[in-house]
Amino acid sequence: MNNSELQQRKQKAIARGEGNAYNVYIKRAKNAELWDVEGKRYIDFGSGIAVVNTGHCHPKVTAAVKEQVESFSHTCLMVTPYESAVTLAEQINAALPGPTPKKSIFVTTGAEAVENAVKIARSYTGRSGVISFNGSFHGRTLLTGGLTGKVQPYKAGFGPFPPELYRIPYPNALLGITEAQSLEALNQLFKCDIDPARVAAIIIECVQGEGGFYPAPVSFLKTLRALCDEKGILLICDEIQTGFARTGKLFAHEYAGIEPDLVTMAKGLGGGYPIAAVAGKAEIMDHPQPGGLGGTYAGSPLGCAAGVAVMSAIRDEKLCERAQAVGERLVQHLQGIKARYPALVGDIRNLGAMIALELVENGDINQPNTTLTKAICAKAGEKGLLLLSCGTRGNVIRFLPPLTIEMEVLDEGAAILASLFDELANG
C-alpha cells in the first residue's frame, strides 16, 4: 500500500474536516526522523505539533509504556487509581514556580484541560466571564473555540459559541500593538462589556502558538498578574504548546517570574501518549466537589507512565538547556537565509526551541507573504522535511524539532530549507 492509495482510502473513510498537512503515511519513527510506507525518510521539524519534545520512541518512554501495558491498560483513575498518576502529579506540582501549594488533575487533551481550567475558575470565583486574546488558540471544542481568537478554520460555521467569552488584542510590537494598547483595551472591556467583578479568569499563552509564535512581553505578564490580583480574577497560563522544556524552561511563564493561579498542559507531557493536565494553587484546584472533574480516560495509566518517563528524560538529559542549544543553532541557519533574502524574511524569533520565520514581501512586515509560506511548506515534504505554518496572516513557518534532535540532522533539515528558498524565492 502506497501513500496515494492510503490517501484515497482516508478521503473515503475520514471526514474532510480532519485533514492532513502531508499525504504521507508514516510506518516508523526514531527521534527526529520518520519513514513512510514507501520507505522514504523525513526530518521532523514539527514533533507532531510540539508533542514529542523527547523525540519519537524515546527509550525511557517506550520502556515505561511497555511495562505499564503488560500490567494493565485501564482501570479509570476515578474508580481504582494507580501510583503513576500520583507520582506524576507530585512532580508537576513540585515543578510549578511560586510558594503556594499546588494540586493537579489529569484529563486527555489540551482542549479538555482548558475546559476544566475554566470550570475550576468559575467554581472558585463564583463568576462567569473569561477573557482571552486575539490570535490565541485554546482548542476546537465549542468553549475553547469561543476562546480562540482565529476564525479560519477553527470557528467558521461552528457557532454560536458560549456566552461570557471576551477577547482583547495581544501585545505584539512587531505588528504595532503595544502593551499599553492591550491594557487600554482591557480597561475599555471593563467599562463597556463586563464588570471585572464578573470575570472569573484571563487566559493567555505566554507564546502564542497558532497565532504566530509571538512571545508576550515579560512586563505585560507581570502587569497582568498584578491586575488579576487587584480585581480577584484568576490568571490561567496556557502552556499546552510551550510546556515541558520547549522554550528552554519547563514552562514559559517562568521567564516572567510569575505564579499563575492555574496552568493548562498537554502535548509534550506524554511524549506521544494522550494525556493532559490542569495544575495550580491547591485551594483553587480543590474547590470543585468530588466527581465534578475527571473523565473515563482521564489520566490514562499509559499516559501517566509516559509522563513520568518524560519528566525523567527532561531532568536527566537536561532538555531545557538542549532546547536553548537547538534554538540557537537553527536561528543561525535562519539568519543565513535572511542574509540572502532580506526582502522575504520579515522576522526571526525564538524562545528556546520554539522558533518562527515570518515571511513578507518587499521587506515590509505589513505585507505578509502567504503564498511563499504555503509553497515552502508544501514543497518541503517532497524534499524530505516536515514543516508547519501558523499565524493569523498565514505567513509564519514554525519550527518545533524534537529537543533530542541530533545536530547533524538539524543541520541537514536547515540545508533543505535553504534549498527551498533558492528554488522558490524568485517565484
From TrEMBL:
Record PANTHER family: ACETYLORNITHINE AMINOTRANSFERASE, MITOCHONDRIAL, AMINOTRANSFERASE CLASS III
Designated name of the protein: 4-aminobutyrate--2-oxoglutarate transaminase
A GO term, aspect molecular function: 4-aminobutyrate:2-oxoglutarate transaminase activity
Record's keyword annotation contains Transferase: yes
UniProt similarity note: Belongs to the class-III pyridoxal-phosphate-dependent aminotransferase family.
NCBIfam families, alphabetized: GABAtrnsam
Keyword Transferase: yes
One annotated GO biological process: gamma-aminobutyric acid metabolic process
Cited Pfam families: Aminotran_3
Gene encoding the protein: gabT
Entry keywords, A to Z: Aminotransferase, Pyridoxal phosphate, Transferase
UniProt-listed SUPFAM superfamilies: PLP-dependent transferases
Superkingdom per UniProt: Bacteria
Cofactor(s), names only, from the UniProt record: pyridoxal 5'-phosphate
InterPro entries referenced in this protein's UniProt entry, alphabetically: 4NH2But_aminotransferase_bac, Aminotrans_3, Aminotrans_3_PPA_site, Class-III_PLP-dep_AT, PyrdxlP-dep_Trfase, PyrdxlP-dep_Trfase_major, PyrdxlP-dep_Trfase_small
Organism field: Aeromonas veronii
EC number(s) per entry: 2.6.1.19
